[in-house]
């Protein structure tokens, strides 16, 4: 895949971006002086591109360092599946680029939410923890998995993910510096995971996403880019 795709002579990124946000440590409030600026975006390919045998790409890297963008249909499909990375893009506090279609996407962001997110947030964090070696932990990765569980718990309780980690910043940064024992980290992980599971169906999330609103949104985007 090209880092800067000119599919059919059309620069899809950045010219077709409808939303671009900063994610990662700078969005979470956990950055250090040398932290990268991680950008995630959504672009809308011109509708006539879908009439060909060769479809437009579902995602593109670049052109900026640490930049990755999804075509809007792929982004919506992943959000409906409660992909944690994609859902958190919709709540990033740092929005760098926004078009009317991007505004409409943010306006329906709650339509993507369902109780499935309680499983995806805890499941992804658990799978990543299992890959860590307790004898030689990768502390930064451990910190981000704890952060993901905090976000997932807030999502289950309040109906939206928690992106800014101001309240938990000091403790999370202590994990990243390796100043917290592995036993304490795993206890924290277990407490957060159990708290999410205890909520079950009694939390703030609906049983299923609002697929009709998402379909209506996508139809509007395709009409706008005919």
Automatic annotation (TrEMBL):
It comes from the Bacteria. InterPro entries: RlaP. PANTHER family: NUCLEOTIDYLTRANSFERASE. This is Nucleotidyltransferase. It comes from Planobispora takensis.
């Amino acid at each position: 895949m090209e880092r800067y795709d000119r599919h059919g002579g059309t620069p899809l990124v950045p010219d077709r971006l409808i939303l671009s946000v900063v994610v990662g440590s700078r969005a979470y409030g956990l950055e250090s002086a040398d932290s990268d600026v991680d950008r995630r975006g959504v672009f809308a390919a011109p509708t006539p591109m879908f009439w060909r045998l060769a479809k437009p790409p579902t995602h593109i890297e670049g052109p900026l360092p640490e930049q990755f963008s999804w075509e809007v249909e792929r982004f919506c499909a992943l959000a409906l599946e409660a992909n944690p990375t994609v859902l958190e893009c919709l709540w990033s506090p740092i929005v760098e680029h926004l078009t009317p279609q991007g505004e409409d996407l943010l306006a329906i962001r709650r339509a993507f939410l369902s109780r499935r997110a309680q499983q995806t947030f805890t499941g992804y964090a658990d799978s990543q923890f299992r890959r860590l070696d307790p004898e030689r932990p990768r502390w930064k990765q451990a910190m981000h998995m704890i952060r993901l569980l905090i976000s997932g718990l807030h999502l289950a309780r309040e109906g939206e993910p928690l992106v800014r980690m101001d309240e938990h910043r000091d403790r999370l940064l202590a994990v990243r510096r390796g100043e917290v024992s592995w036993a304490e980290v795993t206890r924290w992980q277990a407490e957060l995971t159990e708290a999410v599971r205890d909520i079950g169906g009694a939390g703030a999330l609906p049983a299923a996403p609002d697929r009709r609103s998402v379909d209506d949104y996508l139809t509007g985007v395709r009409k706008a880019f005919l």
